[in-house]
Design goal:
- Among the domains are: 247 residues, Rossmann fold (3-Layer(aba) Sandwich), CATH 3.40.50; 84 residues, no CATH class; 65 residues, Ribosomal Protein L25, Chain P (Beta Barrel).
- It contains 33 helices and 31 strands.
- The protein is globular, with a radius of gyration of 29 Å.
Amino acid sequence: MFCIIERVESPFSDEESLAVLNRYVREWFVGNFDELTPPQRYAFKLIAERRNTLIASPTGTGKTMSGFLSILSTLFDKAVNGTLKERVYCIYVSPLRSLNNDVYKNLTEPLEGIYQIIKEDKGVDILKDNIRNVTIAVRTGDTTQKERRRMLAKPPNILVTTPESLAILISSSKFVENMRGVEYVVIDEIHELANNKRGTHLSLSIERLQSIVGRDIVRIGLGATLHPMEEAARFLVGMDGDEPRSCAVVDTSLIKSMEVSAISPVKDMIYTPEQRIEAAMYKEIGRIVKMSKTTLIFTNTRSGTERVVFNMKRRLKYKPEDIAAHHSSLSRESRLEVEGLLKQGALRCVVSSTSLELGVDIGTIDNVIQLGSPKSVTRALQRIGRAGHTYQAVAKGEMIVLNRDDLVECTVMLDAAMKKHLDSFSVSKNALDVLAQHIVGMAIDRKWEVDEMYNVIRHAYPYATLSKEDFMAMIDYLAGNYVGLESRRVYGKIWYDKETGIIGRRGMAIRPIYMLNLGTIPDEVAINVLELKTKRWIGNIEEEFLSRLEKGDIFSLGGKLYMFSYTAGSKCYVSEAKSSAPTIPPWFSEQLPLSFELAERIGEFRAAFAESLMEMDEGEARRLISQPSIKSIPKSAKAILDALPVNEYGRIAIFRYFTEQLLFAGEVPNNRYILIEYTRDKMADTNYIIFHSLFGRRVNDTLSRVVAISLGAMLGQDISITINDNGFVVNTEEETEINEDTISTLMKRVVAADIDVLLKGNIRNTEIMRRRFRHVATRSFMILKNYMGRKMSVNRQQMNSRFLLKALEEIDPNFPILKETYREIFEEVMDIGRTRDLIGRIERGEVRYKFIETRSPSPFAHTILTFGHADVVLMKERNDYLRYLHGLVLKRIGVKGRKGRG
């Protein structure tokens, strides 16, 4: 067999596609559908030929039927031939329990319909010919014990489950016998699994299952937005030696038409009063909702979702039965109720944070509104693709934005979405904590020869490059071979005989430990915030938010500013902050990061649009800022704007923004040009070093730390940083003269630095290290969430993890659990790979940098400086500050102010 990933360019004819189906399945399909959808014209025949198949296609294009109908055909062949047994033949896996329930309902109808056609066939005697129906069941954490017992006694032919439940089932000594005949695995929403540890976990489960079955399983992957397709295919099919297994790749993601627009609801985003901006935004929402039967609104944050629902009821007079909220903090019952009402068409509007992004069946949506930027092209397509529930329908979407950086970002994003330029995902490689779980699971199943186990693991694409050294380090840890761990109640889970090379489970208690502690989603807890001196309780913050804090960071809570000091367990100690500028907004943990690819596209737009403005002289530029109109914009600049999906107010705002930046600083930073601006803010009595670095937030997170560490070493000071999608701000502890020579020396240090060593030393004593270590230690069974029927609290887990972190550093600084913690932070929180590449490009001169000194911050610096103010309570203060900064810009460039204009 050739190992090849092949894009299938031409669909099969309807005749060819239908000819491969069982005649009863074909009769049911033709009787219920007028035509085959584009993905079905590929998938029916490919899957009937038992080929691994990856299908990318938008919502509403019959993806589920594409993946399943040929499987149903095979199962009904067995039913008609009397060879269909009570065993599992097909496993369907998705990341969402709600999606599993949808698939169960959506497949029950065809199963019953096809069986009815068979029963009505006069040439068939159901009882005599021993023809039974194909069965289906759902197995998740919600499945009752009664249902589980029934499933064990009468296993379904199609098992619908989650990654975590599959990992349990393959180590269940009784149920696994029902899975030895599995022929197909279908992974839905594969893009949501391939880029995180749940997907890594699933890839190992499938390889273990294939090893149990003893033959190749046909793998089918389904997703709406996949890029790069070949990487998704490798994740789906795994490896055969050093090459990926064969896979047919079907890309019909371009078939759905889109109508999209970025909308500025006001002519002037800076000087229009807040009340008028808010009124204009809700007026725009009301206009769109009025034109549609059902509208879906995305807000990015849960608090934003609740606020929008409240204001739509108050301002637009929507009744409670017309509008609803949907987000992860609501109960499962509340979310299911909203989803049910949507399917019935009973709601005019639903407002969601991110929870309705994926393919849960919510019926027909006419329009999608996005408030603010979703931060990636792929996510934008995923959300807008919820509109128009058939592949012939047009997906309509609007992005309403309230600041100029968001306006540029969303405009470029929608242009890229129209051209189907997707963001890439990356597979989590060689995750040692997930590996630990599966080594224990495999040892529970049976005894293994060490190389045999290693080879099965390396069949999974995320572990194709796993070194034998790392694998054996995990074996040593799990076998209890590290001296000093047992005294800290960390005991061996497996045994390993070095002479024979055989691995097995250690004791009967290991099976329940595995069953009760597996999974990759960490437990989280609300963190109590206490005043440092008085120990007075102030409020709560999320643990993920806490993990981003470093000593000295300032954030808002309950309308006041606090400076972070330290943590103890689930308590966070703070003091009241004198500064007027938060360094991190309270919703930072919820905020989606700007993707690297979208940042690159924004940089390309910045460079092209700035170039188009060069034909103006300064006098004309000043005049057009004061009295802009679409017709008066220079021809080449107007041509660029006219080609973009943005309304007239938005085009004028973009023109003004860039023209002001050019007049003020003479430079527009882009993805190949970093502007390093040293400026003074007289209102805050602070000097700032602003790095205009347009490479996405994860790269900025990494680069800013390298810069801060290097500058701190130069100056002998502590350096604070504020990170933004479009750059970062560096503050020195003491008043320091910064000039071109300082920056030149700094950048030489950055280029010469071993950033792995630098960052490792930097994050060792940070909250992100402590929290991520707990997550990794828990996944690795070093800390047990559940033991002997007792559940360990998150607070206790965190306390234990602190002792263990210190102990492991003393035992071995390269201990695999420590190694995985650093890898996770560097590769999944930060982006050390792209940062390393960026620094190399700076060294080679492919990315230039320039130092400028300004008397007040340049226009492109304003959003970066006010990032921490983006809180409901601080919004007026933020807008006042922006107007103050903008007034300084207008004064500097010689343009009369435009206060009060809307």
